[in-house]
Amino acid sequence: MIAKKNLLLSIALLMIFALAACGKDSSNSSPQTTDYSQAAHWLSLPATVKNVDIFYLYPTAWTSTDPDNPHVCAIDEPTMLTQAPEAFARQATAFETVGNIYAPFYRQDNNSSTDRLNVIAGIPTLDAVAAFDYYIRHFNNNRPFILAGHSQGATILSNLLAGYMKDHPEVYSRMIAAYVIGHPITAAYLTANPHLKFAEGPDDIRVIISWNTEASEVLVTNPVLYGMVGRVINPLTWTTDEILVNNTNNLGSIKLNPDGSVAKDASGAFELMVPPCDAQIDKTKGVLICSNDDAKALSPVGIYHTYDIPFYYYNLRANAQNRVNKYPGI
Question: How many CB atoms lie within 10 A of CB 67?
């Protein structure tokens, strides 16, 4: 997809947590939550046309390598406002046939943070939980819903599941599934949160679904894992065994342009990778392995974090619809 090796390397390293262009950073260290009664603070406020909702949190869409810049950007940071829709297009659109997609803007952690998980547990989580609570009180109207997030968005979802859902069991009872992709869901996390459970198959509901994708040979320490070993489900079979699943089971892997936007053909349809990606769980490392030769060209270091969803885009869509179908009363 990208011809020059040096360009590949630079893009791969910049994409480790998310694709974002570096812009002028905006400081915002206030613990006061963002006002989600303002439509400008929402990336997506859909017309309610389906009987299921999707609450989506995008990955890091603002980065800076300047150590003098703040850890957390402002809610109106121009780079984030520009890049978040690109993430939405390559990720959240997988759910557009399934439900009404609600997606807030939220103040984000700077990728240069030295204590990233704690920073994300602060203002970014504060904002996202406030947005979710506002969504529940003003938009949801007691509909069943799916949570979906990637990378920093997935980390925040893990905090929301552990906190808000524990304190609001009546809300949790309407959750169909939580796609917490690109952040490790560990055994310790599940033990500490007995109200939560990890998916075991394609049909179970009120479960967490997660994976982190990499090549069989990774040339660097995968920073996405934070040194943790998480539970993994295979998005080609929605099972948790370690059998290699051939790419003939893949309903479609979508291509991305070098800037992270979705590649489209002349008609505007998403371009597909040929062949699509295979998948195999490695429980020891807590990762999902993709061994396609074409995938190796996308990341010379072997970390496919940006492609967690694009590699398995149409299988994700089909599984979300399947779990909706299994939810009582829909």
Answer: 8
